[in-house]
Amino acid sequence: MDAIETILTRKSVRQMMPDKEISKDEIMGLLEVAAKTASWSNSQPWEVFVVSGDSLVKINEIWREEMSEGIPDSRPDLTFPHREEWQQYKRYQDNVIGFGQSRKEYAEEMGIGEEEWMKMTLESLSNNYFSSALVILALHESATTYSHYDLGAFATNFMLAAEEMGYSTITAASIVFFADRIREVIDVPEDIKLVVGIGIGYADEDHPLNKPESPRNSPENSQDSLIRQLSFNQNSCICKSR
Length: 242
Prior knowledge:
Layout: H1 3-9, H2 24-34, E1 47-51, H3 53-66, H4 90-109, H5 114-125, E2 133-140, H6 145-164, E3 168-172, H7 179-185, E4 192-201, E5 229-233, E6 236-239
Antiparallel strand pairs: 1-2, 2-4, 3-4, 5-6
Helix pairs in contact: 1-6, 2-6
């Protein structure tokens, strides 16, 4: 699989196969690839915690406890954005709405009621997507904005390497919803802040949660184009204001 095909093929998988494991060597091989990620002045700011085996069982038990009556207020190290914060920028908000709409339309098409869909979603969330392992990414509390950019690039390269090797992934804030409870299971220094988690495993291809396709903005579509300006010569320029 070449790089472009890998990018076009990969998608977030919301239901893994819980009976399939990934070894330490396999995870380490993927981290070796991700460690090649470019970063600001070669700072390589990423901090990585890999959770599997008994530790993952304990974290999933905690997540089920925390979500036993639905999704509670989270307690992350970093403040999560809320979709209301994107209302000032219509394209962002439209993308969030489009994501939810695609899932709703699929459920309706398959005859899955809203209550049943929410039950499946909560079961997946409260078991961290039944991942074989969690890769939790973090930064030192002194990290700058560019370090967060670097960490995102690291996560992307890890997930693309995983895709090429035949694994499925999902990057999710929900994996670090309860940062205080994670610290009950693994040793996380207080000056290290958990940012996001990646679940990795093998997709349950037939599960309904893995079927909807999220829409993507196109550089060709004038309504949702991600390009503000495209200039190659004096006769070729698109300048877009929003």
